Each structure stands twice: as C-alpha cells, then as structure tokens.
Amino acid sequence: MSKINSILIAKILIFISFILFVSSAIFYYYENKNLVNSKQTKSLDPTQEEINITTKGEDVQENLPESNGSLENEVVPIEDNNLTNNDNDNASSNNQMEPNYVPDPNFNVNDNSNEELGNELSISEVNNNLRNTIQDNYGIKILYGNETSGYRVGGLQTYPEEDEYTIQSTLKSLANLMEVYPYGFFQEIKAGGIPLTLYLINSYSESGVTGATNAFNNRADISIALKYEFAESFNHEVLHYIEKFIKKNGDNFNSWITLNPFNFKYGSINGNLSYNKTFSADAPFVNNYAQASAEEDRASTFEYMMAPTKASCLNKEKTVWRKAEFIAQKIDLVFNTVSPNVTEYWERFIY
Question: What pTM did the predictor assign?
C-alpha cells in the first residue's frame, strides 16, 4: 500500500470518528433534555391528581372496654363489604346528625337570632353569613346546595344537599371543628399553593361513600356527604389534605410501613388486627379500613387523634400510639404554624 493511500485511509477513519462523536453528543444532549423536560412536566402539571375516596362502616368507638381478642391471621379480601370507614347506620339523608363533640363551646355562632339591624334574615342568608365568616377566618372556599351541582370526583356523581337546616347545622359544626386547628394552619397550606374548596353535598352516586379528597398540584377539593356523621369525615379528609402539603414540601412517609406487623401488606383485611373489632390496646390498626392503604391508615388514625375521648390503642408505646406520634412529628416538622413546643389538639392523647 502506497504512502498516499495510507494517509487517505487515515483521514477517512478520522472523519468517521468525528461524525460518530458529533452524533453521540447530539443524541446525549436531546436525550437528557427530554428527561429534564419529562421531570419538569411531572412536577409542574397542575392536572396531576391524587384521589382518596372514603366509604361507610368503621367509626371511632368511644368508652368501649378492652377485650382479650387474639390477633389471629384471619384474612379477608379487600373487596369485602366490611372494608369501610364511618359506621353510622342511624344517620339518614333527611336527618343530619350533629358531631359527637364540640371542641370549642365558646365559638360565637348566632344560634337563636336571624335578625340584623332590625331586618329579619332568611335561613339561607344566615347560612351564607356563617359560610363567609368561616371562609374569611380560614382561607378556604365552601360550596353547598345548587353550587355543587354537577361536581364529580373519581368517576362518582354527587347530589346536592338542599335542606337549609342541615346546611346550617353542618356549618356550625365546621366552625367549631376548624377552631381546634392552629391559627393560620389552613392559610399556610393555601399560601403553599394548595387552596382548599369544601363541597358539602348530600350523597354520592355510589352507596356508602362518605367523603373524598381530590388533591391536585395546585389545589385540593374535599367533598363530604352530609347524610353521614360529619366530624369524623371532615378530620379524615383533612389528613389527606395535610399529606398533600407535606409531600409538596419535599417530605414523605416512606418509613411508615416499619410500624406495621412483620409481613403485613395493605389490601388484605384482618379484623383481629383492628382496635374497633378487638378493643385491644395492642391492635396495630384502628379499624379495618386503615388496612386498605398507608394513606387510609394515617387518615383513620388521625380520626382517633381528633376524637373526644382517648382510645386505649393510643396508650404510650402501643403501635397506634407510635403511628399517631409519627403523624404529629411529621406535621411539626413541615408546618410553620405548628410548634413542637405546643401540644396541639391532635397531640393531647400522645404527649
């Protein structure tokens, strides 16, 4: 091979190497650009949602004696009709039951007068005034009556609550419930980019659904069926709302599963592991519904933390107590309106 041919081949090989290098660089650039854009889209997409739907059947049970029920491995499939949360079969769509506790009896709600400046107000006007007061105090939006017409969540249709007296009773209960949360608590979540709209409805198209939380990246909707007991449903859904704020602030609940019995998997229900079935302080779950998922476990535990009386499963060092402490510490860590030096309402049974 002549010297000229060798030089030519060398130049060709160098040219080919250059082309391959440039091609690789271009491919790497666009591949990483697509990955970055994909991550950005996932984190910024305002339509991304997380839906939690709560069903009827398991509520906080008060003043019940402990039993010696054993924690046997009796597993029931998750689709069991007993897998539900609020167990108030006596409530009806025409008779809204008052919450079984009133955290702040001094809350100034004008119960006995519908008069203002000498003019008698209709019940709808009184309700609207009360609604406006709650909205102004806590930075949330409240819809009821025909304002909720057409609202759907998780494939479920909702039906409006049309009884003004039920709406008034619920608004008064809501005002009292909001009082036990720290000052500025809901405003902090709103300022963090997740404003809340509360839908007070009569019922859902699926029987037994008591409430739902539909949390997006830039807002959250909570809907509650007023045909069931209100206080438990509200506090349950609020914990889902709180979790959305915690996650948006970069924290997580990854270590939660370490609090469960060895080899337990969410989705299989064992009544012998539930406090409201065994009344054993050693039960690791408050009810069957808590065994459906980690999210429902925390929300159901929070119901017990907000209950009027202490359940024995919240005794110090018990599993449910450890779960309650986990929730309280996580809220302390993330919220500026909550201080570790102050015992909040939900902490009164654990500290």
Answer: 0.74
